[in-house]
UniProtKB/TrEMBL annotation:
CDD domains: ASKHA_NBD_TsaD_bac
EC number(s) on file: 2.3.1.234
Cross-referenced HAMAP family: TsaD (MF_01445)
Broadest EC class assigned to this enzyme: transferase
Protein name: tRNA N6-adenosine threonylcarbamoyltransferase
Protein's organism: Eupransor demetentiae
């Protein structure tokens, strides 16, 4: 089954062709980072225009890369939420148009399910599974009793993990989005500054990163006031360690409470080398029977291949939409 997928929820315009949910035949991604950099974040109006400009190009490119025509496609999958409404609309309209013109079934896909489904590009997820979904807008521990079933065990009460990287990056004068740069700086630095580990004491599976962000801001301001210089690499390393410790702490608790066969690391922040290594360590030492399945790094950021993977789950479950499908900017999984 060949699924043509579209993704346009934030600042990446992407089209991909995925076979049977796990073989990426093509994945064309146009990023707009350069247009948003100078604003320090995504400007919705600018994003929509970029999507309009790029969506047919990434579609043509995806077909070319896969050496296919629309005759080879069996269904069209598209992200309908969560995300920016004006951005989501571009992918949705394109998917509807293609589905209508070529008389193909339309599959609605939750962007977050897409991030998680990309783990299948590493190896097949075994169920029950636990997923740590860490991205620019979300930080969640998600239990998957079966394929395509999602129950949120814990989530962030304030900033998302990726958002905290981006905000600290802004403080350090780094370009948006700053996660990748901080990761590289952290690799060079020493973890010699003590920051509070977010929500360490509370007895639940929720996260909070705003306190950590404030602690970093205070540290920088204090150093400025007393005229002390700051080693930015050390600050990055110490901040990243505090984020990773918080994510590891909650993951450990969840793995102890919910016996699962596999553990998935997904979302943009899943690219973080410190996090990938710390989880590898946690799983091999404390949960050796749980298979660790991080999303391959090239598929951690927003891309349409992951939407093709989650689209295949819906395809198998008979979840289709008609042309009345609308965007759902606040879409999320259900909390339990
Ligand atoms: P959501 O998926 O919640 O709707 P989004 O799609 O905007 O939000 P993603 O594209 O999945 O978010 O992830 C982007 C985030 O990942 C940014 O905050 C970015 O800084 C962060 N990020 C990317 N690479 C790394 C890295 N190596 N270390 C830490 N964070 C990273
Ligand atoms: Mg993005
Ligand atoms: Fe995303």
């Amino acid at each position: 089954t060949n699924i043509l997928a579209f993704e346009s929820s934030a600042d990446e315009t992407s089209a991909a062709i995925v076979q049977d949910g796990n073989k990426v035949l093509s994945n064309s991604v146009a990023t707009q980072i350069n247009s948003h950099k100078r604003f320090g974040g995504i400007v919705p109006e600018v994003a929509s225009r970029h999507h309009i400009e790029w969506i047919t190009r990434v579609l043509d490119d995806a077909l070319d890369q896969a050496k296919m025509t629309m005759d080879d496609i069996d269904a069209v999958a598209v992200t309908y939420g969560p995300g920016l409404v004006g951005s989501l609309l571009v992918g949705l309209m394109s998917a509807k148009t293609v589905a209508m013109v070529h008389d193909l079934p339309l599959i609605p896909v939750n962007h977050l399910a897409g991030h998680i489904a990309a783990a299948n590009f590493n190896q097949p997820i075994q169920y029950p599974a636990l997923a740590l979904m860490v991205s620019g807008g979300h930080t969640e521990l998600v239990l998957m009793p079966k394929e395509n079933q999602f129950e949120v065990l814990g989530e962030t009460r304030d900033d998302a993990a990726g958002e905290s990287f981006d905000k600290v990056g802004r403080l350090l004068g780094l370009n948006y989005p700053a996660g990748k740069t901080i990761d590289e700086m952290a690799h060079r630095g020493q973890t010699n500054i003590k920051f509070p580990t977010a929500m360490a004491r509370e007895d639940n599976l929720d996260f909070s990163f705003s306190g950590l962000k404030s602690a970093v801001i205070n540290h920088v301001h204090h150093a400025e006031q007393v005229g002390e210089s700051i080693n930015q690499d050390d600050l990055a390393a110490s901040f990243q360690k505090a984020v990773v410790d918080a994510l590891i702490g909650r993951t450990k608790k969840a793995l102890a409470a919910y016996p699962v066969k596999s553990f998935v690391l997904a979302g943009g922040v899943a690219a973080n080398m410190g996090l990938r290594e710390a989880l590898d360590d946690l799983l091999s030492k404390s949960f050796p029977k749980v298979t660790y399945i991080p999303v391959p790094r090239e598929y951690t950021g927003d891309n349409a291949a992951m939407i093709g993977a989650a689209g295949y789950w819906n395809y198998k479950d008979g979840i289709f939409a008609d042309l009345s499908l609308n965007t759902d900017p606040g879409l999320d999984f259900d909390l339990i």
